[in-house]
Write a structure and sequence with these properties.
148 residues, alpha+beta, five-stranded mixed β-sheet, 4 helices, globular
Length: 148
């Protein structure tokens, strides 16, 4: 399995979004290729993708998982946030999520961040176990969301 940083919008990436985003959120519409180009052009946002090692070297292996790492500077230093972690149903339980999170942590450390945050619904039990195994600790905090 391999993890790579995606920095170019391609039809393959658009297809991956069509497959993966509905598995992450029923209320979100997958980005089209133009939206992907805009998304990927932002500074300090990194899209990490997981590919299995199942295909031979002559065939591009499909993207079976992804994670977004956002880094930003605030007055107290550089921070990071992990968002939209999703692994295709067919690839779950094979360590893809773990590899994506580990790669995000490594990249954040290289960028000099002081902390990495993420949220996960309590009902996503496997995801919560994954984050705890990766070293994340549950914080006593309130999360607020403003919706227009």
């Amino acid at each position: 399995m391999s993890i790579e940083i995606i920095d170019t919008a391609t039809p393959e990436l658009e297809e991956a979004f069509l497959t993966l985003i509905p598995q992450l959120s029923r209320s979100s519409t997958p980005m089209n290729i133009d939206q992907l180009e805009q998304f990927l052009s932002q500074d300090n946002i990194y899209l990490l993708a997981y590919r299995s090692d199942d295909a031979n070297d002559d065939v591009t292996r499909p993207i079976l998982g992804m994670l977004t790492l956002v880094t930003f500077e605030i007055p107290t230093g550089w921070r990071a946030w992990i968002e939209d972690v999703v692994v295709d149903e067919a690839a779950r339980g094979q360590g893809a999520g773990q590899k994506l999170v580990e790669a995000a942590i490594d990249l954040a450390k290289k960028k000099g961040v002081k902390s990495i945050d993420l949220t996960s619904r309590p009902t996503r039990e496997a995801a919560n176990r994954l984050y705890q195994r990766a070293g994340f600790e549950l914080r006593e905090t309130n999360v607020y969301r403003f919706k227009k």
